[in-house]
Amino acid sequence: MSNLRFDFSRKGDDVLLLKLEGWLDASNAKELSDAQEKETAEPAIRDIVWDASGLTLVASAGLRVLMAAYKITTARKGKTYLVGANKNVADVIRMIKLDQFLQMRDGMDGLWTEKK
Q: Measured in whole angstroms, how far is the alpha carbon of residue 34 from the centre of its chain?
């Protein structure tokens, strides 16, 4: 049984929203990576929003999936957002300086108006 649940949805034509709950680590990173690759196969997707409000842990394998999202959006002149990460997850992101590449937000408030 996986210790991660995730769900993809669309916000408009060009935004992919990924809702995460649980732990993102080596035991489930490949499954998420494969799903993310499939969901982003459509070139209209420019931005990816990772809703990390339910994410309790992210390990190095999970960070690689996040960086893959960043590479996809950068190639399409879009952005990758990390929204609602708890302190532990946010501290890891900042410690390895991924916050210099990602758009980090505390919550979804204002995100959709910012994107218009």
A: 14
Q: At what angle do helices 29-39 and 60-75 cross, to 10 degrees?
A: 10
Pair 18, 50: CB distance under 8 Å: yes
The contacts of residue 36 (CB under 8 Å, 6+ apart) are 8, 18, 48, 65, 68, 69
* DSSP β-bridge partners for residue 24: 58
Q: Between the CA of residue 39 and those of 10, 59, 97, 106, what are the distances in Å? A: 10, 22, 26, 25
Q: Are 82 and 102 in contact (CB under 8 A)?
A: yes
Query: CA 29 to CA 45: how far, in whole Å?
Result: 21
Global pTM value = 0.91
Collapsing DSSP to helix, strand or coil, 22 comes out as strand
DSSP string, 57-114: EE-HHHHHHHHHHHHHHHHTT--EEEES--HHHHHHHHHTTGGGTSEEESSSTTHHHH
In this prediction, residues 44-70 reach a mean pLDDT of: 96
